[in-house]
Model the fold of this input.
Amino acid sequence: MESEKPTGMKIRQGFQTFLTQTRGNTTFKPELFDLIGVDVKVNDLPQVFNNYKIINLTDIHLGQWISPQYLEGVVDYVNRLNPDMITLTGDYVSYILDGYEDPLLNSFKKLKAKDGKFAVLGNHDHWNGADKIRKILKEADVIELSNDVYSVEKDGEFINVSGVDSCSVGADDLDKVLEKLPENGYSILLVHEPDFAKISSKTNRFDLQISGHSHGGQLIIPGVKTTPFRCSYSVKYPVGAYKVGNMIQYTSKGLGTNSFWLRINCKPEITLFYLKTTKRKNIEITEG
Done:
């Protein structure tokens, strides 16, 4: 499904190269972003998935403030964390894809995760050519899950990873996902827009939804830990973790920004989820 690029984007893309150059050095520096660790406690999580590591990257917006060199630094950093799974939740470019296809492909290809790399598309990906982005993901060995499901199996136990395509452009099809989703196993839903949690949580089929889209509002009020700046589809869940019904919704601040490179008390973010079982592991003691 291809969506027409908004007129405003055609104007903004004329300023993109100039504005990015004004930022100066755009190489990766670990001290300039937050590595956020999120412990997700799960009552029925099998022991085989205890301490399972999932890294989420979102809202890269490559080419606007985030340079190919910066993204390479992110990839090297993520690979050193040795994740079990990597999730990518959309907006990989901002206004221009042309000229950034190869850097995006090369970086995504270099990402390493034991059990796979999974992605959904964001609104900017559709505006810049969804089919082109999907081709890049496929060539980079990233499993694209727009309105689809993939199950990771270990010792007969499962984690189900589902994805819903961008609801900002009307590409979401939750019914299609629910038809494919197994009844058993821990279930994660990838959705670019966090406020989709109002819909997904009501199904009682998902344990964790991972999203981006908001950039954390690019300003977080100290002490309150939320933002006054909220865009469409991130009004209710703009930043951080929320309990929505029986589901946890997590909204990342993302790596890049839209329009201007301005973040106040809102560093770029890489999110590291640790799945933690509440089940005790029984150890058999034998007599000597």
In short: The chain has one domain: 34-277. The mean pLDDT is 90. The helical segments are 7-22, 68-80, 101-110, 123-127, 130-139, 174-180, 197-200.
